[in-house]
From TrEMBL, chains A, B:
This is Putative short-subunit dehydrogenase-like oxidoreductase (DUF2520 family). It comes from Algibacter lectus. Transmembrane segments: none annotated. It comes from the Bacteria. Residues 122-246 form the DUF2520 domain. The lineage of its organism: Bacteria, Pseudomonadati, Bacteroidota, Flavobacteriia, Flavobacteriales.
Length: 256, 256
């Protein structure tokens, strides 16, 4: 049985709390937050505290706090030589205070407050400085039921960056699609099956092979028509031009 | 029973052929292509021809050919005053020869050769010039089992443009994610659950409300780190900057 103390009360902390509560071989011994308000509703299930000097001894301390708070909180922990991990994609493992056996448990998924999340769909990226903390972190990550991946700092950094492209930027393209359709009173909803199909297609096909459309075909007539529609929105037009050029760079010149 | 003649042998033509063959109230009377090679394997199921002067009388003629071929093929059809539709998102309904009762049946989905496609997930956009052709085209579209939508030319135009954003451009973001992860030997595959979640999220949440991440949070530290990683790829960096600016324009200044 792995004992865990969770620190923080945001989306990741709350989802991890629930995930570990449901895991067979993990026990959440304590939940810390600097304010008890956000976690007090769980006080009948778990020991809660807002006092770092009251922290229990545990196998792992999970700092699921905002990026900016990680370094300072890790410093304030009143013990050393224990396994302390943060959950951020964008913060270095060395940002944790060096008195700890440091590591990272980075859930590569988009967490929405209140929304149900199946951990089977949450890949856990594990990074450790000392090899001997890996087996336990691996067991901990596996207990959530999703895929796990051992990564180094560079890999975690690029995964975090790539996640911004495939999640935040993709979502912004959906938003632009929404704006474009609404400009003529068309229904954005009828694009949803296409959106889902686009995401599903790459389960079995590389994005390279899955590509279609006017940019890849070098269909100048259609591209010209589209740019004309976008004449009234210079930002959308720039994004159209840049992504069209990017597709054409990836796929090369038109075959004659 | 609606009788249909399909013209063309590309992805859309092939999928429509299969879709209509399975529909209860539709019969495919004939399949035309300028070369019989691509459709000859179906000669025991349907009458096939490569001769326009042999075309049978039918309720609807569906020109599922490349955009550039639509106008000319519609001109060459040796009859008039029959319902003739094309299936393109990007071509005007008036590009069809005016001797016909013109319309468009635009399937708003990405068709991949050989891949199975469930028409339940293919919204059919219907456009007609004459009101009296609408009821039959509606019945025809409904027979495929997916959602249908009556659109005008402007709406079809923006839907086609929006489809490029949410399909081709999104797929290119996946491709960039692939390149970025591979640059450090990380696995692109562990981004796939996030990709699927991003697409599924907007089933019930607008893209506006679904947005998260460093751009929306105005998290300058993370953005700076990401741009530094992208220093070796000026195109990707430009796309990062442009989409970050787009998100920030959509979501406004950071709340203090």
């Amino acid at each position: 049985m792995i004992s865990v103390v969770i620190l923080g009360a945001g989306n990741v902390a709350s989802h991890l709390y629930r995930g570990f509560r449901e895991a067979d071989n993990v026990t959440v011994s304590q939940w810390y937050n600097r304010s008890l308000d956000s976690i007090s509703e769980h006080s009948n299930e778990v020991d809660i505290t807002d006092d770092l000097s009251n922290l229990k001894v545990a196998d792992v301390y999970i700092l699921a706090v905002s990026d900016d708070a990680i370094a300072e909180l890790s410093e304030q922990l009143p013990f050393e030589d224990r396994v302390v991990v943060h959950t951020s994609g964008g913060v270095g493992v060395y940002d944790l205070d060096k008195k700890h056996r440091r590591g990272v448990l980075y859930p590569l998924q988009s967490f929405t407050k209140g929304a149900e999340l199946d951990f089977a769909n949450v890949p856990m990226c594990i990074e450790t400085i000392y090899k001997d903390s890996y087996p336990m972190l691996k067991e901990l990550a596996l207990s959530l039921g999703g895929p796990i991946q051992k990564v180094n700092s560079d890999q975690r950094r690029v995964l975090h960056l790539a996640a911004v492209f495939v999640n935040n930027f993709t979502n912004q393209l959906y938003r632009i699609g929404h704006e474009i359709t609404e400009s003529e009173g068309a229904e954005f909803d009828i694009l949803k099956p296409l959106i889902l199909e686009t995401a599903k297609k790459i389960e079995h096909l590389s994005p390279f092979r899955a590509q279609t459309g006017p940019a890849k075909r070098h269909d100048k007539k259609t591209i010209k028509k589209h740019l004309k529609i976008l004449d009234n929105n210079i930002e959308h037009k720039k994004i159209y031009e840049l992504l069209t050029a990017s597709i054409q760079k990836t796929h090369g010149r038109k075959k004659l």
